[in-house]
Design a protein that fits this description.
heterodimer, A: mainly alpha, Four Helix Bundle (Hemerythrin (Met), subunit A), two-stranded antiparallel sheet, 7 helices, globular, B: mainly alpha, about 75% helix
Chain lengths: ~230, ~60
Protein backbone atom coordinates (compact mmCIF):
# COMPACT_ATOMS: atom_id res chain seq x y z
CA UNK A 1 0.00 0.00 0.00
CA UNK A 2 1.47 3.36 -0.98
CA UNK A 3 -0.12 6.40 0.58
CA UNK A 4 1.70 9.69 0.64
CA UNK A 5 0.93 12.04 3.43
CA UNK A 6 1.31 15.68 2.48
CA UNK A 7 0.20 17.02 5.83
CA UNK A 8 -1.10 14.88 8.66
CA UNK A 9 -3.31 17.57 10.15
CA UNK A 10 -4.98 19.46 7.31
CA UNK A 11 -4.86 19.78 3.57
CA UNK A 12 -3.61 23.01 1.99
CA UNK A 13 -6.47 25.51 1.74
CA UNK A 14 -8.68 23.67 4.24
CA UNK A 15 -8.56 26.62 6.64
CA UNK A 16 -9.72 29.06 3.98
CA UNK A 17 -12.41 26.65 2.83
CA UNK A 18 -13.58 26.24 6.42
CA UNK A 19 -13.77 30.01 6.89
CA UNK A 20 -15.76 30.44 3.65
CA UNK A 21 -18.09 27.59 4.65
CA UNK A 22 -18.63 29.18 8.06
CA UNK A 23 -19.43 32.57 6.51
CA UNK A 24 -21.84 30.91 4.08
CA UNK A 25 -23.50 29.08 6.98
CA UNK A 26 -23.92 32.37 8.90
CA UNK A 27 -25.47 33.96 5.79
CA UNK A 28 -27.80 30.95 5.48
CA UNK A 29 -28.85 31.24 9.13
CA UNK A 30 -29.56 34.96 8.71
CA UNK A 31 -31.67 34.48 5.58
CA UNK A 32 -33.54 31.49 7.05
CA UNK A 33 -34.26 32.96 10.47
CA UNK A 34 -34.50 36.72 9.81
CA UNK A 35 -34.72 37.67 6.14
CA UNK A 36 -37.40 35.31 4.80
CA UNK A 37 -40.96 35.84 6.11
CA UNK A 38 -42.75 33.00 7.93
CA UNK A 39 -44.90 30.59 5.91
CA UNK A 40 -48.58 31.53 5.65
CA UNK A 41 -49.77 28.08 6.77
CA UNK A 42 -47.03 26.66 8.97
CA UNK A 43 -45.67 29.91 10.44
CA UNK A 44 -42.16 29.78 11.90
CA UNK A 45 -42.13 25.97 11.97
CA UNK A 46 -41.44 26.10 8.24
CA UNK A 47 -38.01 27.68 8.90
CA UNK A 48 -36.73 24.20 9.82
CA UNK A 49 -37.20 23.31 6.15
CA UNK A 50 -34.25 25.59 5.15
CA UNK A 51 -31.78 23.36 7.02
CA UNK A 52 -33.65 20.06 6.76
CA UNK A 53 -33.67 19.95 2.95
CA UNK A 54 -29.96 20.89 2.60
CA UNK A 55 -29.06 18.20 5.19
CA UNK A 56 -30.86 15.62 3.06
CA UNK A 57 -29.22 17.01 -0.10
CA UNK A 58 -25.73 16.72 1.41
CA UNK A 59 -26.53 13.16 2.55
CA UNK A 60 -27.49 12.21 -1.03
CA UNK A 61 -24.41 13.96 -2.42
CA UNK A 62 -22.17 12.20 0.11
CA UNK A 63 -23.45 8.74 -0.74
CA UNK A 64 -23.17 9.49 -4.45
CA UNK A 65 -19.50 10.39 -3.91
CA UNK A 66 -19.05 7.22 -1.82
CA UNK A 67 -20.52 5.15 -4.65
CA UNK A 68 -18.30 6.82 -7.27
CA UNK A 69 -15.24 6.49 -5.02
CA UNK A 70 -16.00 2.78 -4.59
CA UNK A 71 -16.42 2.20 -8.32
CA UNK A 72 -13.18 4.03 -9.09
CA UNK A 73 -11.36 2.07 -6.38
CA UNK A 74 -12.56 -1.24 -7.84
CA UNK A 75 -11.38 -0.15 -11.29
CA UNK A 76 -8.01 1.32 -10.34
CA UNK A 77 -7.18 -0.19 -6.88
CA UNK A 78 -5.95 3.29 -5.98
CA UNK A 79 -6.44 3.88 -2.25
CA UNK A 80 -7.12 7.58 -2.77
CA UNK A 81 -10.58 6.64 -4.07
CA UNK A 82 -11.18 4.51 -0.99
CA UNK A 83 -10.19 7.46 1.22
CA UNK A 84 -12.67 9.64 -0.66
CA UNK A 85 -15.41 6.99 -0.36
CA UNK A 86 -15.10 6.36 3.38
CA UNK A 87 -14.71 10.06 4.22
CA UNK A 88 -17.82 10.91 2.25
CA UNK A 89 -19.77 8.01 3.81
CA UNK A 90 -19.06 9.19 7.34
CA UNK A 91 -20.03 12.79 6.51
CA UNK A 92 -23.15 11.40 4.81
CA UNK A 93 -24.16 9.49 7.94
CA UNK A 94 -23.81 12.70 10.00
CA UNK A 95 -26.03 14.64 7.58
CA UNK A 96 -28.57 11.83 7.30
CA UNK A 97 -28.79 11.90 11.10
CA UNK A 98 -29.36 15.66 10.95
CA UNK A 99 -32.04 15.28 8.27
CA UNK A 100 -33.86 12.66 10.37
CA UNK A 101 -33.65 14.69 13.60
CA UNK A 102 -34.69 18.03 12.05
CA UNK A 103 -37.49 16.30 10.13
CA UNK A 104 -38.70 14.74 13.35
CA UNK A 105 -38.66 18.12 15.15
CA UNK A 106 -40.69 19.62 12.28
CA UNK A 107 -43.11 16.68 12.22
CA UNK A 108 -44.06 16.95 15.90
CA UNK A 109 -46.04 20.23 15.60
CA UNK A 110 -47.13 19.74 11.96
CA UNK A 111 -48.08 16.03 11.90
CA UNK A 112 -48.61 15.65 15.63
CA UNK A 113 -45.97 12.93 15.96
CA UNK A 114 -42.18 12.70 16.18
CA UNK A 115 -42.08 9.69 13.87
CA UNK A 116 -44.34 7.79 11.50
CA UNK A 117 -43.55 4.76 9.34
CA UNK A 118 -44.30 6.46 6.05
CA UNK A 119 -42.21 5.77 2.90
CA UNK A 120 -39.82 8.76 2.97
CA UNK A 121 -38.95 8.39 6.65
CA UNK A 122 -38.63 4.62 6.49
CA UNK A 123 -36.41 4.55 3.40
CA UNK A 124 -34.24 7.32 4.90
CA UNK A 125 -33.80 5.30 8.08
CA UNK A 126 -32.84 2.27 5.97
CA UNK A 127 -30.28 4.46 4.17
CA UNK A 128 -28.84 5.50 7.53
CA UNK A 129 -28.54 1.85 8.64
CA UNK A 130 -26.85 0.85 5.36
CA UNK A 131 -24.07 3.41 5.72
CA UNK A 132 -23.67 2.86 9.46
CA UNK A 133 -23.16 -0.82 8.57
CA UNK A 134 -20.64 0.30 5.92
CA UNK A 135 -18.62 2.15 8.59
CA UNK A 136 -18.88 -0.71 11.12
CA UNK A 137 -17.69 -3.19 8.49
CA UNK A 138 -14.65 -1.07 7.76
CA UNK A 139 -13.73 -1.04 11.44
CA UNK A 140 -13.77 -4.85 11.54
CA UNK A 141 -11.64 -5.74 8.51
CA UNK A 142 -7.88 -5.37 9.03
CA UNK A 143 -6.55 -6.03 5.54
CA UNK A 144 -6.69 -2.65 3.69
CA UNK A 145 -7.30 -4.13 0.21
CA UNK A 146 -10.04 -6.48 1.40
CA UNK A 147 -11.60 -3.69 3.49
CA UNK A 148 -11.61 -1.25 0.58
CA UNK A 149 -13.08 -3.82 -1.84
CA UNK A 150 -15.84 -4.91 0.56
CA UNK A 151 -16.68 -1.31 1.40
CA UNK A 152 -16.80 -0.38 -2.28
CA UNK A 153 -19.32 -3.15 -2.96
CA UNK A 154 -21.49 -2.14 0.02
CA UNK A 155 -21.26 1.52 -0.98
CA UNK A 156 -22.34 0.59 -4.49
CA UNK A 157 -25.24 -1.66 -3.44
CA UNK A 158 -26.31 0.72 -0.66
CA UNK A 159 -26.51 3.57 -3.13
CA UNK A 160 -29.56 1.89 -4.69
CA UNK A 161 -31.54 3.25 -1.73
CA UNK A 162 -30.71 6.90 -2.58
CA UNK A 163 -33.03 7.18 -5.63
CA UNK A 164 -35.62 5.11 -3.72
CA UNK A 165 -35.57 7.68 -0.89
CA UNK A 166 -35.87 10.52 -3.41
CA UNK A 167 -38.71 8.91 -5.37
CA UNK A 168 -40.54 7.39 -2.38
CA UNK A 169 -42.88 10.39 -2.02
CA UNK A 170 -43.78 10.09 -5.70
CA UNK A 171 -44.14 6.30 -5.90
CA UNK A 172 -46.15 5.69 -2.74
CA UNK A 173 -48.93 7.42 -0.84
CA UNK A 174 -47.29 9.67 1.73
CA UNK A 175 -47.87 12.65 3.97
CA UNK A 176 -44.38 14.04 3.35
CA UNK A 177 -44.39 17.41 1.46
CA UNK A 178 -43.15 17.40 -2.14
CA UNK A 179 -40.92 20.42 -2.78
CA UNK A 180 -39.59 19.51 -6.24
CA UNK A 181 -42.11 17.98 -8.61
CA UNK A 182 -42.58 17.86 -12.36
CA UNK A 183 -39.40 19.87 -12.99
CA UNK A 184 -40.42 22.81 -10.80
CA UNK A 185 -40.12 23.89 -7.18
CA UNK A 186 -43.35 24.28 -5.23
CA UNK A 187 -42.22 27.19 -3.08
CA UNK A 188 -42.47 30.99 -3.29
CA UNK A 189 -39.50 32.76 -5.01
CA UNK A 190 -38.20 34.35 -1.78
CA UNK A 191 -38.28 30.95 -0.08
CA UNK A 192 -36.54 29.46 -3.09
CA UNK A 193 -33.71 32.01 -2.81
CA UNK A 194 -33.35 31.22 0.91
CA UNK A 195 -33.29 27.50 0.19
CA UNK A 196 -30.64 27.95 -2.54
CA UNK A 197 -28.43 29.96 -0.15
CA UNK A 198 -28.73 27.17 2.43
CA UNK A 199 -28.03 24.51 -0.18
CA UNK A 200 -24.88 26.37 -1.29
CA UNK A 201 -23.73 26.85 2.33
CA UNK A 202 -24.28 23.19 3.21
CA UNK A 203 -22.50 22.05 0.05
CA UNK A 204 -19.48 24.20 0.94
CA UNK A 205 -19.52 22.84 4.46
CA UNK A 206 -19.66 19.30 3.05
CA UNK A 207 -16.58 19.94 0.88
CA UNK A 208 -14.76 21.30 3.93
CA UNK A 209 -15.72 18.35 6.15
CA UNK A 210 -14.79 15.93 3.38
CA UNK A 211 -11.37 17.54 3.05
CA UNK A 212 -10.68 17.38 6.80
CA UNK A 213 -12.04 13.85 7.12
CA UNK A 214 -9.96 12.69 4.15
CA UNK A 215 -6.82 14.04 5.88
CA UNK A 216 -7.73 11.90 8.87
CA UNK A 217 -8.19 8.77 6.76
CA UNK A 218 -4.94 9.42 4.92
CA UNK A 219 -3.09 9.70 8.25
CA UNK A 220 -4.76 6.49 9.45
CA UNK A 221 -3.59 4.63 6.33
CA UNK A 222 -0.07 5.99 6.74
CA UNK A 223 0.04 4.79 10.35
CA UNK A 224 -1.22 1.33 9.29
CA UNK A 225 1.39 1.14 6.51
CA UNK A 226 4.24 2.15 8.81
CA UNK A 227 3.12 -0.26 11.54
CA UNK A 228 2.93 -3.03 8.94
CA UNK A 229 6.48 -2.17 7.77
CA UNK A 230 7.81 -2.29 11.32
CA UNK A 231 6.26 -5.77 11.79
CA UNK A 232 7.76 -7.10 8.55
CA UNK B 1 -43.83 31.22 20.87
CA UNK B 2 -43.80 27.40 20.85
CA UNK B 3 -42.75 27.46 17.20
CA UNK B 4 -39.55 29.30 18.12
CA UNK B 5 -38.58 26.53 20.54
CA UNK B 6 -38.92 23.94 17.80
CA UNK B 7 -36.92 26.10 15.35
CA UNK B 8 -34.24 26.79 17.99
CA UNK B 9 -34.14 23.07 18.83
CA UNK B 10 -33.67 22.07 15.19
CA UNK B 11 -30.96 24.67 14.51
CA UNK B 12 -29.31 23.95 17.85
CA UNK B 13 -29.12 20.24 17.09
CA UNK B 14 -27.52 20.93 13.70
CA UNK B 15 -24.84 23.19 15.13
CA UNK B 16 -24.10 20.99 18.13
CA UNK B 17 -23.81 17.84 16.00
CA UNK B 18 -21.58 19.53 13.40
CA UNK B 19 -19.41 21.11 16.09
CA UNK B 20 -18.99 17.83 17.98
CA UNK B 21 -18.20 16.04 14.70
CA UNK B 22 -15.53 18.59 13.77
CA UNK B 23 -13.98 18.42 17.25
CA UNK B 24 -13.97 14.60 17.09
CA UNK B 25 -12.16 14.69 13.70
CA UNK B 26 -9.62 17.12 15.12
CA UNK B 27 -9.04 14.96 18.20
CA UNK B 28 -8.58 11.82 16.09
CA UNK B 29 -6.21 13.74 13.80
CA UNK B 30 -4.06 14.90 16.74
CA UNK B 31 -3.99 11.37 18.16
CA UNK B 32 -3.05 9.89 14.76
CA UNK B 33 -0.32 12.48 14.33
CA UNK B 34 1.28 11.25 17.54
CA UNK B 35 0.90 7.60 16.45
CA UNK B 36 2.42 8.51 13.11
CA UNK B 37 5.50 9.99 14.75
CA UNK B 38 5.97 6.83 16.85
CA UNK B 39 5.42 4.56 13.83
CA UNK B 40 7.88 6.58 11.72
CA UNK B 41 10.54 6.34 14.42
CA UNK B 42 9.97 2.59 14.70
CA UNK B 43 10.24 2.00 10.95
CA UNK B 44 13.54 3.95 10.63
CA UNK B 45 16.75 1.83 10.71
CA UNK B 46 18.58 2.10 14.06
CA UNK B 47 21.38 4.70 14.12
CA UNK B 48 24.82 3.15 14.75
CA UNK B 49 26.75 6.33 15.47
CA UNK B 50 29.56 5.27 13.07
CA UNK B 51 30.20 7.22 9.83
CA UNK B 52 29.24 5.12 6.78
CA UNK B 53 32.67 5.46 5.15
CA UNK B 54 34.50 4.38 8.29
CA UNK B 55 32.18 1.42 8.87
CA UNK B 56 32.38 0.11 5.32
CA UNK B 57 34.99 -2.47 4.26
CA UNK B 58 38.08 -1.12 2.53
CA UNK B 59 37.19 -2.34 -0.96
CA UNK B 60 33.84 -0.49 -0.76
CA UNK B 61 35.04 2.71 0.92
CA UNK B 62 37.35 3.90 -1.80
Amino acid sequence: MHVSLVDTRTRPGAGLLGLLALLAMLAAIYTALVWVPPDADMGDFQRIFYFHVPSAWVAFLSFTVTCLGGVLYLRTRDFRWDILAVSSAEVGVVFTTLAIITGSIWARPIWGTWWTWEPRLTTTLVLWFIYVAYLILRKNVDDPSRRASLAAVIGLVGFVDVPIVFMSIRWWRTIHPIVFDGGEFRVAPIMMVTLLISLAAFTMFYVYLLSVRASLEQAQMEVEALEQDSWD
Amino acid sequence: MASLWYVAGAYGVIWIVLFVYLVSIHQRLVSLHDQLEVARRRSEPPARGIPAKAAAPEHVAS
